[in-house]
Each structure stands twice: as C-alpha cells, then as structure tokens.
Amino acid sequence: MSTVNSSSSVYENLMLYITPDKFYLEPLESPDELIIIDRLTKDISLQINQGQIPASATSKPICGIMGIIHLIAGPHLVLITKKSKVGEINGQSIWRVEDTEIHAYARASLHLTEDQNQYDKQYLSMIQSFLRTPYFYFSTSYDLSHTVQRLYNTSPDFLQMPLFERGDQRFIWNHHLMRDLLAQQELHRYWLPVIHGFICIKPCIINQHSFSWILISRRSCYRAGTRLFMRGVDTEGHVANYIETEQIVEYDGCKSSFVQTRGSIPLFWSQLPDLRYKPKPTLSTTNNQVDGYHRHFDSQLLTYNKQIIINLIDHKGIEEILETNFANAVREYNNPQVRYVSFDFHKECGHMRWERLSLLMERINQDQNEMGYILIFRDGTLLQQQEGVFRTNCIDCLDRTNVVQSMLAKRSLQSQLKRLGILTDGQRIESQSHFETMYKNVWADNADICSVQYAGTGALKTDYTRTGKRTVFGAMKDGLNSMIRYYKNNFADGFRQDSVDLFLGNYQVDENEGVSKICPLMEKKELKNIIVRNYPVIILFALAMFVLSFFIPAGHPIATLVCMVFWAAMVVVVLTFVLVSRTEFVDYPKLRDLRPKIKHE
Description:
Layout: E1 14-18, E2 22-27, E3 33-38, E4 44-48, E5 58-62, E6 64-71, E7 74-89, E8 92-104, H1 114-131, E9 136-138, H2 148-152, H3 156-160, H4 163-166, H5 179-182, E10 195-206, E11 209-219, E12 243-251, E13 254-262, E14 269-270, E15 282-283, H6 289-304, E16 307-311, H7 320-333, E17 338-342, H8 345-349, H9 357-363, H10 365-371, E18 374-376, E19 382-384, E20 389-393, H11 399-419, H12 433-455, H13 462-467, H14 472-491, H15 493-504, H16 527-548, H17 557-580
Parallel strand pairs: 13-20, 16-17, 16-20
Antiparallel strand pairs: 1-2, 1-5, 2-3, 3-4, 6-7, 7-8, 8-9, 9-10, 10-11, 11-12, 12-13, 13-18, 14-15, 18-19
Helix pairs in contact: 1-15, 6-7, 11-12, 16-17
C-alpha cells in the first residue's frame, strides 16, 4: 500500500526570489539547498544554500513548480502560487490549484520584432487561459495518478521512486512543462505531478460510523482537446475525453475502491464543427477501424482486465453509423474478455421516463457482481480485488455517461458500505437522506467540471443526478447550456484547442517564428478572410441600408428600387457565402491542421 516516503515526496512549500539575472527557489523544508535558474544562460542548478540570494531580491511564497514553457521570447517559469486543501487520502494532503503565475526569463521583449511580440502575447494568453480551466490537483506525497488497486499491487522499489517518475503518464498534465527539470535527477524533489479533472473528499457519518468518501476523476492528457475537435481514437489507441473515475471509501484503517472509465468511441471518426447544431459524424476511410479498436482495448485489457462496454448512443439518426461500426468492431475483435452492452438512452428514457434506466442496470447486474471492487483490511490484508471495469460512453462521454456511472458507483457503494459494517443488513443508501443528497450533488459536480473541461459548459441532465428525477427547470437549463455549447464549439474552441496543444507540447514554439519561420498565428490578408472575420457586420450594414432605402424621397421610385434590390442582394450573397463555406466561419485551431479533408454532406 502507498505510504509517505520522504525520498519520493515533493517539497510542499517554497520561496521564490527574483533578481534581474536569476530566479532562486528555496524549499522551506530544506533551507540548506537552493535551485538557481540563470535567466540569461537558462542554466538550472541545485546548490547548497550559502547566502547566494541578494538582499535586493523580490520574494514571495509559492506552492510548487508547474514547469517551464518555451515561447518566442524564450522560457517562462510556471509556478503554483495559491492552493486550497481538498482533504486527505491515506492521511496525505490533496490540494487544488487556485492560482498560478508565469515569469519570463527575459527581462524585456526588445529582442523581438513587433510581429513576434504580438505572437508571443497570444501564446502566453493561451497558457494563461488553460491554467484557468478548472481544476488542476496535486499532492506532494500521495500518488494521485494511480488507483488504490494499482498502488497496492506495486513493489516496495516502485514506492521508492520519485512521484513524477512512477506516475501514470496518461494523467500527468505537466509532463511537457517539466521536461527541463526532469533532465536533472537531483531535482526530483521539485518534480510536482499535476493532474486535471475532479476530486472531492467528504467526511461522512452513517450509523455513528465515521468514514471518508472520495471521488476522483482523472482526465487523460492523450488525445486531449475540445468537444468537436477531438473525437474517436488515434493510431496509438488513445481516445478523446478519456477519464478514469475512482470511488474510494476509507474507514477505520480499511480501504475500498471502485474504478470506472469513460472515453470516446474507439473508432477513427470526426465531427468537426461547421455551424450546424449537430454536425454529422464522419468515419475515416483512410484508417482501419478495427485496428484502432484493437489498439485501444489491448491497452485497456492490459491495464484493467475485463471490459464491460456500455454504449449509450442513439441507434438511429446521425449517431447510428457509430453504433453500427462499434458493434461490428466488437464482433470482429471477438475477445471473451470484452462484453458489449448497447442501450439507446434517448429512446428508452425519452419523455422523462428515466426510471427505465433500471432496464440497463438489470442487464449488467451480474457483470457488476462478478467485477466487484478492491477491499483492503486495516492490517494490509487484501480481501478482494476488482476484476475489470465498466467502460461507458455516449457520443460526448459527458451527460448520459455520468448519469449511468453515478448509478453504477452507487450500487458498488451500497455493497462497500455493507461489507465494511457501516450499513446494517437491510439498510439502503436511499434511507440515509443527508448522505444521499451529498452523494448525488458531488456526482453532478463531477459531471459539470468534466463537461466544462471538454465542452466548455456545465453538463446536461444533472437535475436527474442531483434529485433522482427529470424536471422542467432542468430541461430549460439544458437548453441554455446547449446554446452556449453551440457558440463555444463553433466560435471559441479553436483557441481552447490551441491552448491545450501548446500546454501539452503537441505544438512547440520555435523562437524564430515571425522572422525566419512562419508563425501559425499569422493572420491571412485575403479578401475571403476579411469577409469571414467581418460577415456579421457586413450583413447588419446591408440590412440597415435596405431599411434606409425606404426613406428615399417619394419622387425617386427607381432609385429606391435599385437601392433595395442592391442591398437585399448583398444580404443574400453574404448569407449564401456563409452557407456554402460553413467551415470557414468556424474558429478552427491554428497550431494543428484539423480542418476537414472531405466535404461534409
């Protein structure tokens, strides 16, 4: 089991000292050592603290190093400056990042051209924007990237390794930023692994038994991005919006954990925005669909063992092609360790008939009984392990998925609490009104945060998760969120996707951009692009002129008619241009070419 190991833990509190030539980082737990970063040579060294810090240095406390990002102006130090405690797991503190700061090595930007300066500011705003995306978490002593079961099954040598080195790289989001520090093994106590997702830790009491109930959702940094720009699987088997969610119960020294996963349908497909409310999903014709499926589930079986796929997408309409091809891939793969359960959520639960979710739960009841969960006794004895996971998806892996995952977790929790002796025979979680209300709200919060991170808005259908029933008010709220999603997915997500790619190193800035190398942020000056950027203004102006045509003096009927026809034609021409060139009006990412290679119907 994971224990605190001082040699593998990370320094929890540091002081930053800034001078014109250097950054000094002093760990408060070990003030006899010092990291010195030379802002001119960019050298990083660990030294014995012998009073090198000048008295004139500006100082401030920080909570950890997120890493170093390289932009046109050079390296920038990214620091965590504010944190809040979420709670404790295994007696070790878990923190949420509340604020960050970015400090450029370069003291001024005089070495940049005007264009370079502008590009550099845009890159910096991307990093700042992504750092504000809720939520980043870290612990200086607990390995947040691994489940309780994975940690239990590790060797003592593994637990001696630095947190960053032993972490599950799928869930460590600052690996690219940390690469300059990772090059020096002696800096391992400054390597702070940061995860992205959702964590909630709640102290609870049932029947006078005090225990901790914990929910962790770890987002994968592979194939990461925004809702319509990142779909399906890549050639490595990584899928979009992949999240591992773990429910942990800690009671009187005992630990129990239940793990689920979600992720985009593991086929090569896209659904790029094109101004339509629901763009039609398009399957790739250049990739072998079954090969992508194989790569994904080979990895999943190796990590989690048996897979129960719960596919919640529609069996007709635009989602039908995905359901059909997903089912075909499962049949062709023909692995007895993978079971496919397809449930048309909208058909079965339409018109607010959400009680029909019981049909799905009945179908997978035996699977969940066989799968179980891990349970570790207070003396470290393993009583049982989880044999496989449920892998749930809808088209976004957000709203429908979270509803079903919360129900699976609740069923597991019922068994966990009974096995631990917290619930007595015959007692149900539903009878514990205070706990059940908390449980539902945390799962709804989990849905909202995961949705903001991927789709840009809170989740849909959370009224059911929070209250156990669908409401008219909830449906109205979903309508508003759907409209906001539409706007963001079409007109704001290009910037968000670029921010993710820049943060993760999927695109790396060249310091020569804007001089000897073309910067992808450079705006094109063609007439077409000018129209694209200004078409709302052009349409409004043409409509205004059309209306004003009515006020031409009555003695000039021909002039009135000509003006009306001209401005009406202008409106029609611009609208036609918009309809014909839909994708040109979408905010597409600039750092990677994600534009459609084929014409959508």
